[in-house]
Amino acid sequence: MITANDIAKLLEGKLVGDGSVQITGIAKIEEAGDGTLSFIANPKYEKYLETTSASAVLVSTTIDLAQYSKLPPAVIALADPYSSFVIAIEKFIPKKQEIEPGIHPTAVIHPTARVGKNSSIGAFVVVAERTVIGDNAVIHPHVVIERDVKIGNDCLFYPHVTVREECIVGNRVIIQPGAVIGGDGFGFAPMKDKRYKKIPQLGIVVIEDDVEIQANTCIDRATLGDTRIKRGAKIDNLVQIAHNVIVGEDTVIAGLTGVAGSTKIGERNMIGGGISITGHISTADEVKIEGASAVTKSLDKPGQIYAGYPAKEAMKWRRAEGAIRQLSGLLLEIEQLKNKIDELEEVVRKLRK
Question: Per the residue annotation, which of 104, 140, 160, 243 is the catalytic one?
Answer without folding.
Answer: 243
